[in-house]
């Protein structure tokens, strides 16, 4: 019996007691996925929290039978990707906050030099991923950042497994080209 099956059964039996376990198991994956779609860490943290709020609300309305049959990872990432898309759409209608000299408008600074470097690396990859077609970007993030299977990615994106494999392959080929251009003089 897989860990996913055990978790689904626990959720179906007692949602309130099992839900924190689901959050513990999935929060890192949900955050990492959101971080690749969104421009900054705090937005990804907010989205990750909202994913679990919405998941709890939805699960509380489901029958135990439906919960027992639910494929948790694809379901959570469907929520995640939809929230990220909505956030991006909303954000595009607002003025952009500019960071000057490592200081945010809230007056905070990067806690450590390593944090600043990590943020820079994530931002560089986010920019590279933004150069891809949306289908390819979503497929790559779900497959290689989040770690979903091709079948699960297909469930999240609503397309056949073969299409997911093709999108991942084409996206990785394009990312290799981008990296080669960055490395050339």
Summary of the model, kept short:
The protein is mostly helical.
Task: Describe the protein in words.
Helix 7 (134-146) packs across helix 8 (150-157). It contains nine helices and no strands. The chain has helices at residues 3-13, 15-37, 41-61, 64-69, 72-91, 113-130, 134-146, 150-157, 161-183. By secondary structure, it is mainly alpha-helical. The chain is 77% helix and 0% strand. The longest helix is centred in the first third of the chain and has 23 residues, at 15-37.
Average pLDDT level: 84
As a percent range, the share of helical residues equals over 70%
Q: What share of the residues does DSSP label as strand, in percent? A: under 5%
Shape: globular
How many DSSP E strands? 0
* Poorly predicted runs: 103-110
Topology of this protein?
Layout: H1 3-13, H2 15-37, H3 41-61, H4 64-69, H5 72-91, H6 113-130, H7 134-146, H8 150-157, H9 161-183
Keywords:
9 helices, globular
């Amino acid at each position: 019996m897989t860990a996913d099956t055990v978790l689904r059964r626990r959720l179906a039996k007692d949602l309130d007691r099992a839900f924190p376990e689901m959050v513990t198991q999935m929060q890192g994956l949900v955050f990492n996925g959101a971080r690749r779609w969104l421009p900054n860490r705090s937005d990804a943290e907010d989205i990750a929290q909202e994913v679990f709020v919405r998941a709890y609300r939805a699960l509380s309305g489901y029958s135990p039978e439906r919960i027992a049959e639910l494929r948790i990872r694809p379901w959570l990432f469907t929520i995640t990707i939809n929230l990220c898309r909505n956030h991006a759409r909303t954000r595009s209608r607002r003025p952009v906050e500019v960071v000057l000299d490592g200081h945010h408008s809230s007056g905070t600074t990067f806690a450590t030099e390593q944090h600043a470097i990590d943020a820079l690396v994530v931002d560089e990859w986010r920019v590279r991923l933004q150069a891809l077609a949306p289908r390819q970007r979503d497929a790559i993030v779900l497959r290689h950042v989040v770690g979903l299977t091709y079948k699960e990615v297909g469930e999240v994106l609503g397309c056949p497994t073969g299409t997911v494999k093709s999108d991942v392959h084409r996206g990785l080929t394009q990312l290799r080209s981008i990296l080669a251009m960055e490395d050339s003089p």
